[in-house]
Amino acid sequence: MSFEEARILRMRAETFLKHAKQALEREEYDFACFSSEQAAQLFIKSAMLELVGEVPRLHRVRELLSLLGSSIPEVGMLISEFIKERRENLRALDDAYITSRYLPFAYTHEDAEVLVNLAEDVINITEKVLKECRR
């Protein structure tokens, strides 16, 4: 495992989040939703690479969070509660990976705002896990 590889994934995640926020401001809601999903997914994967030594071949944010929690038992409850409290929004974030690109569905400002905020929450909880594990 390379800390450099984890750093690169983390930087990509942060870039996707920045673009999601900009897209929300420009009323490009589909792209804001897609970018939010990518930001959350890549940030979790960067943490998995750093803490577990590999990047899971999964794409669903809920599954990635669950795997993170089960891979590091001392944060399992924290992750489990996070998922439980945000289950429906996490489903919407997972759906955005495909829907925002391929399906004839138009996201609204409210949809995009919820998913951008959720991506930030996912990144924040993952940062908390990283800090806890680095102690």
Could you explain the architecture of this structure?
With 135 residues, this protein is an all-alpha fold. It is built from 6 helices and no strands. It has helices at 3-25, 29-52, 61-71, 76-85, 87-102, 109-134. Helix 1 packs antiparallel against helix 2 (29-52), helix 2 (29-52) packs parallel to helix 3 and helix 2 runs parallel beside helix 6. The longest helix is centred in the last third of the chain and has 26 residues, at 109-134. It is globular.
How is the secondary structure organized here?
Elements: H1 3-25, H2 29-52, H3 61-71, H4 76-85, H5 87-102, H6 109-134
Helix pairs in contact: 1-2, 1-6, 2-3, 2-5, 2-6, 3-4, 5-6
The CATH H-level homologous superfamily? Nucleotidyltransferases  domain 2
Low-confidence runs of at least 5 consecutive residues? none
SS field, number of helical segments:
6
CATH architecture: Up-down Bundle
Query: Whole-number average pLDDT?
Result: 95
What characteristic shape results from the CA principal axes? globular
Percent of residues in β-strands? under 5%
Helical content stands at over 70%
Largest sheet: none
Order of helices and strands: HHHHHH
Quote the distance from N terminus to C terminus: 19 Å
The domain count comes to 1
CATH top level is: Mainly Alpha
Instruction: Assign the structural class, choosing from mainly alpha, mainly beta, alpha/beta, alpha+beta, or little secondary structure.
Output: mainly alpha
**Could you say what the CATH topology is called?**
Four Helix Bundle (Hemerythrin (Met), subunit A)
Tell how many strands the DSSP assignment holds.
0
User: Mind telling me the C-alpha Rg?
Assistant: 14 Å
